Amino acid sequence: METTRRVGAQVQPTPGTTPTPEGAPPARRTVDGYLRAPFPWYGLDEAFTGPRWLMQVGTAADGTVQHGSTGHGEEPSIRPEAADRERGAFTVVVTVAAHPVRGSGDGTGVLDATSVSSAAWLAGSGLLAYTWPPQLDHTRRNDWLDQQTETAFELADDLEGPDWTTLSLPVDGVPRAFHYRESEFGWVLAGSTAAGVHLGAYGRGMSAYGLGFSVVADLSAYT
Q1: CA 39 vs CA 11, 35, 157: distances in Å
Q2: What is the count of structural domains for the chain?
Q3: Which domain holds residue 115?
Q4: Which of 2, 3, 40, 115 is 20 to 30 A removed from 158 (C-alpha atoms)?
Q5: pTM (2 decimals)?
Q6: Phi, psi of 178 (to 5 degrees)
């Protein structure tokens, strides 16, 4: 799945933030990158009444915003002493601009098409960013993370495979089909919207079966 691999390779953090794994909170959040996006952002719908928080956006080499994440619930930590996965419930929604193969804005190359698999891979790797097996030290965790991220990539490339099931969830009030899988680390899902974007989501402690998604009408709810 060259498309999703290149999505991961080309994106850059919002200027002024610290580079982090997809989905991990940057050192300094900013709404500026979200406001530059030419596509609508998605989050959980109004049925969710808990905390909401911004995460980070990913950009292409020319600065065009390609995807980003919004968080819901108790903000997770990647600190090893906070590795108890039962301590808090959260859901992260990843919005990915739907694009065909196209030239880069700076004229230096070609950007691959994005797809539901792109959203699945970004969501899968995002979940791994918050997973720290307590028996691993920093060095061994890096090796573990590389291995697990490659596995997430391979799973995202086979959405019709046996590791995925189909789940119907409302998007802007209309049922949409999502690819869904669970693991010991949490759950991941991915699908598309009628608004020209792909959606990924991941979480722990919150059941995916009761979620609904909608366009974020006011980003200040996340700041």
Answers
A1: 16, 9, 24
A2: 1
A3: 2-222
A4: 40
A5: 0.80
A6: -125, 150
